[in-house]
Amino acid sequence: MPWKNQGGGSPWGPGPKGPWGSGPQSQGPRPPDLEDLLRRGQDRIQNMLPGGHLGGLGIMIVILGALAIWGLSGFFRVQSEELGVVLRFGKHVRTVQPGLNYHLPYPIETVLLPKALRVSTISVGMRIIDDTRRGGTTIRDVPEESLMLTGDENIVDVDFTVLWRIKPDGVGNFLFNIQNPEGTVKAVAESAMREVIGRTNIQPILTGARTTTEVAVHDLMQKTLDQYQAGVLIQQVQLQKVDPPAQVIDAFRDVQAARADLERVQNEAQTYANRVVPEARGRAAQIFQAAEGYKEQAVAEAKGQSARFLSVYEEYKKAPDVTRQRIYLETMERVLGGADKLVLDGGQGGSGGGAVPFLPLGDLLNRRPAPSTSQSQGGGNR
């Protein structure tokens, strides 16, 4: 049976639709009916003319008035969040900015006014419902959209929103290439999120990979919509909630707490190691340097003693008696240099009979400076 209007309706539903869906719907003011305007103007002019009949001048006035009204019908205003898409016999010829604009009157040119400068929001996995009784909004979860399978075969509950708008240079694609823009963006968003979640393990998703996930979904959505030539620009993807399913969320929280404790203990151990190891290395370096210093000192002293002994030996070979006497005197000087009591030997010709006289010269030395010359007492030398 050929396609035709059976029973006064279309097989694709009410309204002017065809087998490929409805075409672009004009969002601007409908142009006036030219025939109706001409008929009304003719009736008014006939009532104004004497006798109610139009002459040649009257017909000319009617035609000029109709042409003026028809020409003025091409003015239109574009609002601040809109862009004007001008169609000439149904073909997109130009796009105009907000403000007062003009196009050739209908049916030569028409205009569409999509909200191209407005940022729209689509929620996936949740619905925001206005609560009139409480005067606020409530969020209802949609499990069939939010439950997704991760790369390690776990289930995660993801709610997110997408901010999108029409590309300024893609208004024509937005109007003529997609039939349901909001549904298309939502389907692409859910598909992109499932793909990104499907190649990622659950642990990064629940902890630190939120920003990475948002960027990956944003790029994949924009790439897909550009392939569709949808004329849509994705502004931002925002993850609202990323949790395990409600049935196992308590177990996941216990696992997260255990992993947090593990990381804390590892960090404490690493901190202790970072403090102890440098101290041990410092002490080892200090001991090593002290040993090296002692080694250098001992070697230097041994070399000095050896050189001194060799020099004394050379002098001893030249004058053994003198050298022997000098060594004896130097040795006694070192031995008796710190004594505070002095014993004087009077010799064989001295007085005292065999007794050795004792003088407290130490006390005298403490009272007055020691004499610079030797003193003789009892015929003996000091």
Question: Which descriptors would you attach to this protein?
Answer:
47% helix; 15 strands; alpha+beta; 10 helices; 382 residues; disordered N terminus; single chain; 3-stranded antiparallel sheet; 4-stranded antiparallel sheet; disordered C terminus
Polypeptide structure, described:
The structure is a single chain. The protein is α+β, with helices and mostly antiparallel strands. Helix content is 47%, strand content 20%. It contains ten helices and 15 strands. The chain has helices at residues 34-48, 56-72, 143-146, 171-176, 181-198, 202-206, 210-228, 249-318, 320-336, 361-367; strands spanning 75-78, 84-88, 91-96, 99-102, 109-112, 120-124, 126-131, 136-141, 147-149, 155-166, 232-243, 342-343, 358-359, 376-377, 380-381. Strands 6, 9, 10 and 11 form a four-stranded antiparallel beta sheet that branches. It has a three-stranded antiparallel beta sheet with strand order 3-2-5, with no helix packed on it. A hairpin with a 4-residue loop joins strand 7 (126-131) and strand 8. The longest helix is centred in the last third of the chain and has 70 residues, at 249-318. The protein is elongated and about 170 Å long.
